[in-house]
Amino acid sequence: MRLEVTRRSDLAVRVLHQLARAEGRTKGSALADAVATTPGFVAHVMTPLVRRRWVSSEPGPSGGYRLEVDLAEVSLLDVIEAVEGPTDTDRCVLADRTCDAAGTCALHVPWRRARAQLLDELAATAVGTVPA
What we know:
Elements: H1 7-21, H2 28-34, H3 39-51, E1 55-58, E2 64-67, H4 76-84, H5 108-124
Antiparallel strand pairs: 1-2
Helix pairs in contact: 1-3, 1-4, 2-3
């Protein structure tokens, strides 16, 4: 299983909340100050959010970032997968290999159920409902 949540996912959620409170466009440096990180780290996190079209980016002196989506429509799982990459559903929890019916480990069934519950919960939780 690959479900990795890093500081990048947390930062993405906090940046989305910050943009939801902003009027107009917000400079990357202002976002960095608001979420207590560096402008470079903000830029790194913004790329997948812009790619998903949740955020627009306009360069230049009057440019910046602007939220383009209602945070009630974006789940935590959406953000995690946008920032960290897709979750891998067929990897063994114990070994770096694909799990298949012929060679499952002792944890396969309970881990698969627990993972499904976790992903369901993350998918059902809108970014707009969590504290930033």
